[in-house]
Structures are given as structure tokens and as C-alpha cells.
Amino acid sequence: MPEPPIADPTTPAAHSPVAPSPAAPEAAPTTPAGLVIALDGPGSSGKSSVGAAAALELGYRFCDTGLLYRAVTWLSLHRDVAETDVEALVSLVSEVELAADAEGRLARVLVDGRDVTEEVRAPDVDAAVSAVSRVPELRAALLDRQRLLAAPGRIIVAGRDIGTVVLPDADLKLFLTASVAERARRRAEERRVNPDRPEGRAILADLRRRDQLDSSRAVAPLRPADDARVLLTDGNRFDETVKLVVDAIRKAEASRPSAGDPRTARKSRRKRRGPQAPEVASASDPADSAEGSRPPRVPAPAEPVTPLAHTPIESHQTLLIRFVAWAARLITRAVTHVTLEGDVDAIPRAGPVILAANHASNADPVVIGAWLTPRLGRRIHWLGKKELFDWPVIGWMARNGGVHPVDRSRADLEAFRLAQRILEEGHLLMVFPEGTRSPDGALQPARDGLAMLALRTGAPIVPIAVVDSDRRWPRGRLLPRPGGRITLRIGEPFRLADDPATSGRGRAAKGAATDRLMGRIAALLPPRQRGAYAAQVPEAPASADEA
Ligand code: DC
Questions:
Q1: What domain range is 409 assigned to?
Q2: Mean per-residue pLDDT for 322-341?
Q3: Does residue 133 form part of some domain?
Q4: Do 367 and 438 sit in the same domain of this protein?
Q5: pTM for the complete prediction?
Q6: Distance 218 CA to ligand 1 centre (A)
Q7: Backbone φ and ψ of 479, nearest 5°
Q8: How many helices (H) and strands (E) does the chain have?
Q9: Using one digit for the tens of pLDDT, what is the confidence trace for 179-189?
Q10: How far is ligand 1, taken at its centre, from the CA of residue 359, in Å?
Q11: Neighbours of 275 (CB within 10 A)
Q12: How far is it, in rounded angstroms, from Cα 329 to Cα 311?
């Protein structure tokens, strides 16, 4: 049964210049303690509508925290308060109240007692809200209000940073996401706009811009918590996604040892989860099939390569991908020792990402795929020469394993368009910017394509170095040399777009961007492998790898 309607019990009515609205009684709910669910995700991922529907079905309260940021933004636009005027911005918080709708969900927002729920969803607020919500002082001012709302339990709290910052101890963390193209289409439908008309394209551009702002801000950036379950909803019907969320919450409730002791429940949940990689599920996740909620997924039969424009881009890892990664780790470990270094958890778990590595050996894609697949929990997309798809077993694995065929006779433009589409639809792309294996293990000059792609899509780049793979399996050798060690070193994600030296459109700017990007890879490599980009690494410290 749904809870009786309740208001935002945290509204600082005492400091508010107006009395609370009758629609928003200030009494705290008298519900028994229940689960606290964090539901995060990017704009238009469906958090609010899916969360509200799931809450209704489960008899939970629901709170859309985005409304708080939207209401402050709306007020700032009306009062002409710039986001740089931090004090004035923070003072607006006391004028904002959340109120319950007819179903008892905190899905309405009142400013000075006036219901502005419709207004805060208008395009002018869409355009300004990301900049306002970057202000750390504002986020801090809203933090306690959100926590107090969740304190009585039995609530789904939707936002961007609920699982990571607001409620890091939530009983269940879900991260709802979909490709930017799919989200833009949904938003266009909501607004009865044709996605292919200029208004529809403006929605797509705005969502992209907001994704970028939300996930790159210094304070509480948009990202799934390490222990979040990521739900990819591309191609799902609304009711399918609601069911995924409801099932996940029911499962969390069922596995709770005792209804009265949330802390015991949290502990046991952490224990069950094991390592901190987020789980990934979609409507077609085989894990869900195993629980009987969906029919089992049948592996796709080998098909002729479809034209690129129609190649569907999947986000989740299939059982085949996970199995191949596992088998590749097993085989590689039998031949050599692999060390993974750097902060793998800093690689974004949602949205567009470019992994860019040096290429000195056939071992590079094997080591990268085998070691990163289990850690990332999301599919790595690769570009592969078309001929690969004709080889018997390899071809089948490539077709089903995230490799996209590129015709090298017409390669560059086609590969560029495909790579752009992969990123624009919010996926993770692995690229070797040198294009081909280095003959001597040192970095070769790279083309400017990847830098252009990164600048055009705004995708963050994660530089990666595969150290000494050329010593284990040099170019020209049929089989690897057993023994030794390969180090897979992950660098810090960065955006070329944030670098003033790489702005501009000319050839020089593109060249500077490529140097910048290759310099980041070079800095992770030992001096002997820095090759053409040695000069990009300022005072190269002597590296242990040189030994
Ligand atoms: O989910 P939404 O589009 O209504 O959110 C509006 C904005 O508020 C969004 O650009 C990011 C911000 N927001 C946030 O920073 N943290 C939250 N917990 C919720 C929303």
C-alpha cells in the first residue's frame, strides 16, 4: 500500500519567509523503518518516472532531489542571482519546499508556497541547472535536507550523487542509465517534439552538454557508486525498467536478515557483494534470466557483417565476453606475469569514455580486454579490420564480443564516424592511436583522428600504457616468449576540451591535442618506450620499468 502523502520534513519553515503550504504538512512520517534506496543516473534516464512508479508499486515514498536543484535554479533566474554569487544562491534554499503529489511522492516543488513543478522543468532551467548545481556551497546546503528526508526509511531517493555522497550507506544503490541518443529521444517524445527536427537535435545537444557538466564537476560528479547496480535501459519499455527496479528492491528486502535492523542488513549485503565492481544489468541480462524473471538469452548465431550504420551498439557484457576475458587471463598467466597498476575505479562506469593505449604487441588487446573487462563491468568497444570477421573462430568472437568491423581500404573516415557514434551513444571505446603495432616497442607518431574525436564528443580519455609487451611478444614473432612481466598501467582520466592549449580548430590545434594525449600515454611508459613523444614528458623520472 502506498504511504499517506507526506511533505519534505526538512523544509526550514522557521527560516522561510512564508508559511508552509497546506499541501505540504511538515510532520515527519510515522512509517516503520524500511529500506533506503539510492537511484542515480544522468538526465532523462527515467529516474524520476521509473522511481515514482516503483515506489507506488512497493508502497515506498519517493523523492526526486533534482527538483531541489531545479527550484533553486528557477529562483535564481527569476531573481537574477548569478551562480557566482554563492551567498545569494545559498540563501534561496530556504524558500524551496518539496511537497507530495496525489500519490504521496515528493514530486512537487513549491517556492514561496506556489507550485512551480511545471516551471522548473522548462528549457531555461534545463539550460542553467548544471552550472548552478556545480556550486559546492549550494550542494552542501542541500545535503542535510536530503539526508533528513531519507532518515525514516522506506524511500527511493533519485538524483545524481545519492549513492556516492548523500546516502553512501543506502541499503540498495541503483544507477539507471541509457545512451544519450535514447534519452534524447525519450525527452523529445515527452515534449512532443520530433527528434529529427532542430528542436529535437537541440534536446540531444543539451543532454550531452549536461552529461558532460554533471560528470566533470569537481564536487559530487555524476558516477555510479562502486557498489551500485547499473541498469542499462536502452530498448527497454517503461514497464520493463520499472520491473527491474521493483525486483531489485524486493530482492534487497528479502535478503534483509531482520526487518528491524538495517545495519545488520547493510553489513550482510556488503559481505555478499564482495569486490567493489558495480554489477551491470539490462533487460536482457543473463543474471536476471537465471532468476526466472526473463527468458534465457540465446547467443546470436553468426551472421554476415551488417552495414555499419545498422550495427546495433550494445552496452552490457555478455556471458561470452566475460568468458573470453576469463580464458584470456588464464592463458596469459600461464605465459607471463601481468601487473595492473593505477586507479581503474576512476574510469567512468557510464557515459562516453575513450581508452587510449600504446600498441607494441599482439598481446596488448588481449591484456587490456582480459584485465579490464571484469573491473569495468561495461562493454569495451573496439574497432577491428573487416577481414578479421572472416576468420573462423576469431570472427565469431569478434562479432559477438564488441569489435566493430572497419573496411581499411576506406578506413579513416568510416572508422571515425563509427567511433563517433559509439561515443555519442554513451559507450566506452578502446583505441590504439598509433593505428598499428610499433616495430620497436616505442611510441610511433599518432594521427590526429583520436584527438579530433575526443574534442568533438567531449568524451574523457583514459591514457593506458602496456609496458614491455613488445619484449614478451614482439612484432614479427609467431608466438610469445614465456616468462617476464607485462605491466598494464592506467592513467588519470582527462578531457582535451578542458585544456586551453588544444582549443581552436586549425591543424596546429589538432596537432597540439594529439601531442597532449600521446604525452599522457608516454608519461606512463618507461623512457625506452616513449619514442616520438619523449619530449612531451617534462622531467621524465627514472622508472622502475627500465630495470
Ligand atoms: O534529474 P534532473 O534532470 O531533474 O536534475 C536537474 C539537475 O540537478 C541536473 O543537471 C543535476 C542536478 N542534480 C544534482 O546535481 N544532484 C542531484 N542529487 C540531483 C540533481
A1: 319-546
A2: 95
A3: yes
A4: yes
A5: 0.49
A6: 15
A7: -125, 155
A8: 17, 16
A9: 888 889 888 88
A10: 40
A11: 8
A12: 28
Rounded CA gap, 392 and 65, in Å? Answer: 52
Protein residue closest via CA to atom 6 of ligand 1? 66
Domain total in the chain: 2
CA of 506 to the centre of ligand 1 (A): 36
Question: Could you report the per-residue pLDDT of 193-238, keeping only the tens digit for each?
Answer: 888 888 888 888 888 888 887 777 666 678 888 888 888 888 788 8
Virtual CA dihedral for 245, 251, 254, 256, nearest 10 degrees?
A: -90
Note whether 134 and 244 are same-domain residues.
Answer: yes
* Rounded distance between C-alpha atoms, residue 547 and residue 527, angstroms: 11
1: nearest Cα among 59, 61, 62? 59
Q: What is the CATH number of the domain that holds 395?
A: 3.40.1130
Q: What's the CA gap between 201 and 109, in Å, rounded?
A: 29
Whether 375 and 458 map to the same domain: the answer is yes
3-class SS letters over 216-284? HCCCCCCCCCCCCEEEECCCCCHHHHHHHHHHHHHHHHHCCCCCCCHHHHHHHHHHHHCCCCCEEEECC
Side chain identity at residue 525, one-letter code: L
Query: Is 448 inside a domain boundary?
Result: yes
Same domain for 228 and 329: no
| Interstrand relation of 172-177 and 36-40 (parallel, antiparallel or unpaired) | parallel
C-alpha span between 222 and 213 (Å, rounded): 9
Nearest CA to ligand 1 atom 9: 130
Distance 223 CA to ligand 1 centre (A): 12
Instruction: Say if residue 470 is in the same domain as residue 540.
Output: yes
Query: What CATH number corresponds to the domain at position 212?
Result: 3.40.50.300
Nearest CA to ligand 1 atom 13: 66
Residues 44 and 158 in one domain: yes
- In this predicted structure, which of 321-335, 343-357, 464-478, 497-511 has the lowest mean pLDDT? 497-511
Q: Within 9-122, where are the H helices?
A: 47-58, 66-79, 86-91
Among the candidates 233, 267, 289, a domain finishes at: 289
Atom in ligand 1 nearest the alpha carbon of residue 67: 4
Strands, sheet with 428-431, edge to edge from the N-terminal-most edge strand: 337-342, 485-490, 461-467, 353-357, 428-431, 380-385, 403-406
How many Cα atoms sit within 13 Å of 164 on the Cβ side?
16
294-308 pLDDT, tens digit per residue, is 222 223 333 323 333
Same-domain check for residues 285 and 338:
no
* Amino acid letter, 440: D
Take residue 177 and report the three cell numbers written for it: 542509465
Residue 218 lies in a domain: yes
Ligand 1: lining residues by beta carbon, under 6 Å: 43, 65-66, 69-70, 129-130, 133, 159-162, 210, 214
| Same domain for 342 and 285 | no
Q: Considering the domain boundaries, does residue 13 fall inside one?
A: no
